[in-house]
Design brief:
The protein is built from 13 helices and two strands; from the N terminus they run αβαααααβααααααα. By secondary structure, the protein is mainly α.
Length: 283
Amino acid sequence: MSWLRERWLDIVAEEGSTRSMALLRILMAFTLWSRFAKELMPFRSLEDPAFVAVGIVFYIATTTMAVGFFTRTSMAAVTGVLAALVWGFEGNGSDPSAYTHHHTTMHLLSMAWLALTPAGKSLSIDRWLALGRAERHGGPIPLEVGATWARYLMGAQVATLYLWSAIDKLQRNFLDGTSLQHLVMRYYTGAALPDETWFVALCAFCGTATVVLELVLVVGLFIPRTHKVLMPLGILMHALFYVLIPVNTFTVLMITLYLAYLPPQTVHDAIDRLLAPPTPSPT
């Protein structure tokens, strides 16, 4: 078990570029706005002062988180808002279980792990201010480096969701495509189903393929050399979910969290390459 202990110590001590965490921070703010901003507008719940207060904190904290101002405090406040929604309110008028849904819980847990990262050290007003202080006092330029161990918690959260999602689907009616046929009836055809062999076979294939892919993603996303194959497949799967059935912001959240699996230096170098000055064309 010594190798496991050494790996654990390596993870806890890991430091790297904070740019990938900064991208996660910005994208998470946009995702949360898409998911909750409309529901938390004050006029919707004037009769409930607590809910109005949660909404006000949400707007302020997600905005400062997005631009990276008092980033640590902002991310902690956003986490608190989501915890209040999940554990303090069941839902809204259109969906009484909106805030107890597992998708909402996924937003909360992902935000909690992100709040443990130094995501304000890059792409933020905090960094802009730190650079200004360094210039005024003649100090060294602050490095975009920090502890990145919390990205493994985000990766573990994604893997856990895939694992239990796959286990939940390990039933005959999903593997043989029956559940998918019911979804087709619910959202597309009503009571009538295509009475075609190819349709039954396609539903069975898609059901089994979904379970297999989710089980592979549980482990495969932690292996960098598999990313070129598994990440596009995972993104395609979530894109199909988004286009074919109503999953709200779940697809965007899951794709965003794939950033947690990428080596921080890889993301840093990719941004450097994108922002590099153009090379003069040869004359």
